Structure prediction request, 327 residues.
Amino acid sequence: MTTTGEHITRGRSLAGVGGLRPAHLVWSLALLAGAICASTRIAAACDEVTDSAAVAEDAEAAVFVSPAEAFAAVAEGATLVDVRRRGAWRRAHAPGAVQADWDDFSDPDERGRLHPDDDFLEAQLEAIGVDDGRPVYMIGDWQQGWGEEGRVFWMLEYLGHNNAHIVLGGYDAWRDAGLPTTRDRAEVPAGHFTVRRNPALVVRFDQIDAENMHLVDTRDRAEFDGATPYGSSRGGHIDGATWFRWTDVFTSDGAVRDLSELSALTSHDGDLIVPYCTGGVRSGFVYAVLRHHGVTGVANYAGSWWEYARNIDEQDSQPAHRPRTPE
Prediction:
């Protein structure tokens, strides 16, 4: 969970450091991209771009892309959003990356849920370079993060941006591939974005229907069984939910599993797949994995257990499933 001190300042200026203007940054990255992809070490990564997109009908449909592909896209003017904590971004980041926290876009009164004001969301997103006609790439902390890049991917799709991607392996993979890093803050051109919410991609408390939805609890097993490490008002899980920890979408070497290996997520007889967690972050990552594999019948429960437990406290007509001993 991000602390208040790590939020980006609302409406802050994105003035550059070191005099890099947007056009200069793109031109410099383009030259560097050509040089790096020509090197022996990175050539293989550049060649893997086609493989990364092979799971989808076209390049725009691939959610997870290699660092080399993201690097090339940023060189062509794509927006790169670093969703790691601000301290990590300050220590080093990809050139041109602007930092943002997933909860910068959240409802201040309803933990986990997206902010209800479209004008607010448009202003926040435009300030970090999100534009209707520009691809957006999210890069996160693959080792210590909570899937924040997946939450932001879901948010962008829900709000109507249809060209968003996630850097496979996160910042560590970017750095380990020999791609450039910096501590400078470059000027990011403001975007022009119009919110067009798609209600089919989100679920709220009053819509939960275990009989007609495939509810997937993506938290740790201890949370599923009743632990409340993140401030939930009660423990347990939604009655009828299947447990599937969100990190199990990866193979032992960090690759995203094939859809055939994710039967716990997809064996639902055509019901809407609804992943949830504590506040819609880990479940947002699972949403992104399913979208990467072309699954369309999936919606994120953004408010997740924070919202569910709070509402159950207020009305007992839909009791939470009580903790039980794991089988």
Remarks:
- The first strand starts at residue 64 and ends at 65.
- Confidence is low (pLDDT under 50) at residues 1-59.
- The two ends are 30 Å apart (CA to CA).
